[in-house]
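User: Thanks for the earlier help. One more: Oxidoreductase. Can you show the sequence and predicted structure together?

Assistant: Of course, both are below.
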Amino acid sequence: MTEPHDGDPPAGLDLTTPEWGMWQAFRNGSTLDLRTPHPQRNDPAGPHAWGPERSVRARVVALLLLDGPPPQPGRVTALKLNGVHITGTLDLAGGTVEPYVEMRNCRFEQELLLPESRFTTLRLVGCAVPRIEAARLQTEGDLHLPRCVVEHGIRLTDAQIGTDLLLNQLVVRRDRRGRSITADGLTVGQDLQAEMIESYGELSLRAAKVGVSLSLRGSQLRNPYGRRALNAPQLTVERSLYLTSAGVSNSPFSSGATPPYGTTTPGRGTRIQRFECEGGVRLDDGRFGDAVDFDQARFVMENDQELSMRRVQTPELRFLGERPQRGRVILSGARVVNLVDKSVSWPGPGQLAMAGFFYEHLIPRGHFPLARRLEWVAAATPEYSPDPYEVLATALRTSGEDADAREVLLAKQRRRRETLPLAGKLWGYLQDWTVAYGYRPGRALVWMAVLWAVGTAYYLQRPPEELKDGESPHWNAYLYTLDLLLPLIELGQDAYWRPGGLSQWLAAALILLGWILATSVAAGASRLLRRQ
């Protein structure tokens, strides 16, 4: 092994010319660039063969990283490679790598083994790797894998990334278990950027924790082999989860992004690439500190697949994507402060479930009339449930839309009526017809005025006989009709007169209708008091 004072390779290692160049570049912290003048031959994932003049052995790379020579005076050791072919298996499992590592446009012959290893910062940019095995990897700084092509999956189970994990424009295909990226239990200190990636298989982030935001802007997740394309239950993101469109910039240093592989939030006139997901999505029990954003997202699912957000908690849910044609959207038990949505984003009947879904404020984008909002609730409740109506009414009332809130509660009673037996339905229709279940009390006054006018007109023409001669008060058809209509109120008229024939039937009808109106108003008032 190399002595601490000696910068030469150990005896018997027999370095090739590219390896000797890599050895010297490592000692002075410079870059070994073995690219050719022909750009088409520099694509690590391309068909062109890379000969010995561009190849270094993985064992030499491992030697440099785990027990390399000292730096040249006044320099810092670092492994920086560009356009290099690494032959054999680079196995750093369990090792501690202190030098800075950056490999660009490199081709790995076999898988990269990093389980249980420790790095300060590791950057692989635009590389082609058969597979990356990095369970329980730890970095003090960043882990960068942008623009890489990984044919047989990446494993980051229980990895701990000190600052940022950058996967932008990564192309990754499934492993033997059908997963493209397995990152269950992953911890990222700051941002996890996976923008404009292409994932073929299941992207698994179960119980992962992200210290700032998780961005999948413009990414294409496809899993025709299994049930889910994104499987992330119990995901915790301190700020926002973005499943939105990305602005595509020709500049490698896009504004607001980490160079040299960032994307931008789409601006006017910018070419955009939307987030698309072919397969189910599972975000159950997720916790998001700021928002979950689905702006312009497109979900392509089979009938048995779901966009599942059961028991998700977030201050804001922006459901602004394209309406799923198949599959189901599940929001059961989710709790949201602001629900930002569009009427054209929600699926139809049988494709939406919202049992126990609670939100405080509605912020519709575009035209979202109350009738469409009631259809939205009905689509989520194939069997009657009062909760979605109550939550919607509360949110409308909080926004000062009391009239709309009453319409929602009236729709709830009408929906409930469909579940009642015949007697209950008849009584319900009567309450609806007369006073709209108490939510339109003015209707009772109209009916009362109509009945009062009819009764008064009749009794002005056909006053009843006195019950006892000389004991009756002065006849007043107006007060007499009103006394019949108002139950429990005595105006001193109906007890002194004896109607007969048709007058008696009219008096009985007025008394009965008065009781019905009073009972309906009382029932509606009781509901209003309970709601308050």
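User: Great, one quick takeaway?

Assistant: The longest strand covers residues 313-319.
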